[in-house]
Amino acid sequence: MYVAVKGGERAIDNAHEWLAEERRGNPAVPELTIPQIREQMKLAVNRVMAEGSLYDPDLAALAIKQARGDLIEAVFLIRAYRTTLPRLASSRPVDTGAMAVDRRISATFKDLPGGQVLGPTFDYTHRLLDFTLMAEGATPDQGSPSPLKGQGRCEDETRAPHVTGFLNQDGLIEEATPSDTMPPDLTREPMELPASRALRLQALTRGDEGFVLSMAYSTQRGYGRTHAFVGELRIGTVAVEVDIPELGFAVEVGEVELTECETVNQFKGSRTEPPQFTRGYGLVFGQSERKAIAMSLVDRALRWQELGEDFTGAPAQDEEFVLMHCDNIQATGFLEHIKLPHYVDFQAELELVRKLRAEAGAMQEAAE
Amino acid sequence: MTEHLAAGAYNFAYLDEQTKRMIRRAILKGIAVPGYQVPFASREMPMPYGWGTGGVQVTAACLVPEDRLKVIDQGADDTTNAVSIRRFFQRTAGVAVTEATGQATVIQTRHRIPESALKQGQILVYQVPIPEPLRFLEPRETETRKMHELEEYGLMHVKLYEDIARHGQIATSYAYPVRVEGRYVMDPSPIPKFDNPKLSGNPAIQLFGAGREQRIYALPPWTQAVSLDFDDHPFETSKAPHDCDLCGAKDSYLDEVITDDQGGRMFVCSDTDYCAGRRARGMKGRLWAPEPEGAA
User: Fold this and answer.
1) For position A115, what pLDDT does the model report?
2) Fewer CB in 10 Å around end: N or C, chain A?
């Protein structure tokens, strides 16, 4: 006797209950609060905001908590929420030249107007586990807030001008012509290829950090090499302004933290143009400098056609390859869906293989 | 994730009206050009890509409050993802649901076409993973779109020919490509080729939604969809050479179930509604026994 498998509904309900229990973990351990995640897991919050394409530290922290620390799952929660939000307005382009910088470094000049500001970086920490952080119940050394915090900030644009601007004065780097063209939005229109640079940058800035990192790394190892220098990397807050038609002027509605990276890349020059440096660009929500640097390398590699370079077949040069595979929500969905039932197609394959084997067997017998 | 969907927190059938309008436009275009893949601005849904976000968006755009919805996965109403999608629409649209193929006005499916013939007025919505039938021959979308434009389907025929050269027959058992009204070659989604004949001349509207790939396409009622083949190697369907062990059906597509570790197996209809309907009418298969009283 056989009773067909039933009970999908009950199984789902039970799974959800179990999941909730697992999320909470041992109830004897105090529950994490959203402010704790927002303040102490800030780089995770930043990544979720960047790849979720939604600047909201509290919601990102909530998503991380709900997703049990699975950041791609958290990005997914944010994306699914974001898509239901109405679009009230488009901001003016943010002015990163007027950024209140917490960190600003150039790898191309030892000193420059605005100075080098190291900021809160892991760069020169020795990666030794700090067991004092583990000491339970110990109050962390509060001390006074860093005397430097906010010191690097400048409201005045002339104090931290972009490094590429200096190169541009001498015509050493390609001109980046400002444009008021409305950028496309891949969350509202289906992606069409070939893509404009603006669309590519949008895809990269919300693309998976690991994917963009590996693509950038591959260019450094010779798969579409672009000889990048970090002209400048800056992290800080910028004002977001929205034009209010009724008022006739722009109003600041808030500020966001951004990481911006501009690379200076080699260019051989051509028959018509003398050698000149070229640009790669990365801009990411929050303090996300690995992502911003990687993004600028990939951006530059994708510009081979526009700059008259050869397509060497490198993955990072291949727009369709990069843009169609950089989104981790799409990728993880399609990857993981193969765990869903496929009884029907597998059955079709089973029958086919059985038939082919039977025929091959019959032919072998006939030959013997 | 959907537990906190308070009434009124979301629009009818989840999507906002602007988005539904955008999807309906894509559907209408798809119906006007049968088999053509219409790009649409697929939204991020509260379920993962690969779980049927394309089908869910198409269903959401089609549903009206009077509809009666059926959701199947692998032909069955009780598979976990079918249960989950059905619940999603019960929660967000409050529509009536049914397991009876004949009673449903909209049927969302993954990997099967119901055994019972569909009727005029019904809508069958397919979940599609890879809408491009040429994708595994040419990975670039920029190239495959051009191939469709130029009706350049030689590559597909070469692939089928190579199958015959190697295996003596066409070695595609599901997602078997069809030519729609002599024009577009179309991927019917990963249905077994057993179901292919039901695509053609079907009185229902057949809509195909691919969320991650951002494509919608359609077969309007009574549209011809011919499975690709050669004169000397005509298309043939295939199924496990057994009868259903529960209802005795000889003509239905079967799931194979492993019953012990001694090579024991049984075959049952993949279409649970069809199988249950036959049993309700007193038809019995080899292993059918009524569920004992009080069994869980």
Assistant:
1) 86
2) C
CB contacts < 8 A, A to B, total 153
Share of chain A above pLDDT 90, in %: 67
pLDDT at site A148: 53
Both structure tokens of A97? 């030249």
DSSP per residue, A127-151: ----GGGTSTTPPP---SPPTTTTT
Is A132 inside any structural domain? no
Q: Give start and end residues of each alpha helix (H) in A196-288.
A: 197-205, 209-220
The answer to whether position A130 is within a domain reads: no
CB contact under 8 A, A190 and B175: no
pLDDT tens digits, one per residue of A97-139: 999 999 999 999 888 888 899 999 999 999 999 999 988 655 5
Q: What's the pLDDT band for A160 if we cut at 50, 70, 90?
A: confident
- This model of the complex carries an ipTM of 0.86
Domain count, chain A: 3
Same domain, A75 and A193: no
A361 touches chain B (CB under 8 A): no
Mean pLDDT across the stretch A289-302?
A: 97
Q: Are residues A307 and A213 in the same domain?
A: yes
Is the residue at A9 inside a domain? yes
Across the interface, do B169 and A187 touch by the CB < 8 Å criterion? no
Q: Which two tokens mark B283?
A: 């038809």
Chain A residues lying within 8 Å of B110, measured CB to CB:
340
Which positions of B are catalytic? 35, 244, 247, 269, 275
Chain B CA closest to residue A363: B168
CB–CB contact A356 B167 (8 Å): yes
Same domain for A42 and A71, yes or no, is: yes
From chain B residues 254-293, the ones with a CB under 8 A of any chain A CB are: 254-257, 259, 266, 268, 270, 272, 287, 289, 291
Report residue B189's pLDDT band, with 50, 70 and 90 as the boundaries.
very high
A244 in the same domain as A189: yes
- Work out the average pLDDT over A186-195: 92
Q: Are residues A43 and A169 in the same domain?
A: no
Contacts of B175 in chain A (CB under 8 A): 345
Within-domain flag for A87 = no
A105 and A11 both lie in a single domain: no
The string of pLDDT tens digits covering residues B223-269 is 999 999 999 999 999 999 999 999 999 999 999 999 999 989 999 99
A157 pLDDT band, cuts 50/70/90, is very low
Is the CB of residue B103 less than 8 Å away from at least one CB of chain A? no
Structural domain harbouring A355: 343-367
DSSP-derived 3-state class of residue A188: coil
Is residue A69 located within the same domain as residue A210? Answer: no
Residue A89 contacts B where some CB pair is shorter than 8 Å: no
B140 shares contact with chain A (CB less than 8 Å)? yes
- Placement of tokens 């001349």 in the chain: B201
Give the global pTM: 0.90
Q: What is the pLDDT of residue A176?
A: 85
Instruction: Report the pLDDT averaged over residues A294-302.
Output: 97
Nearest CA-CA distance, residue A281 and chain B, Å: 26
Contact partners, residue A16, CB within 8 Å, separation at least 6: B3
- Does residue A154 surpass a pLDDT of 70? no
Strand runs (DSSP E) across chain A, as ranges?
100-105, 228-244, 249-265, 278-285
Q: Are residues A181 and A100 in the same domain?
A: yes
Task: Tell me the CA end-to-end span of chain B in Å, nearest whole number.
Answer: 28
Residues 6+ apart with CB under 8 A from B32: none
Nearest to B291 among A3, A333, A347 (CB): A3
Residue B91 has pLDDT above 80, yes or no: yes
Please answer yes or no on whether B49 and A2 come within 8 Å at the CB atom: no
Quote the tokens at residue B72: 């199947």
Cα Dmax for chain A: 93
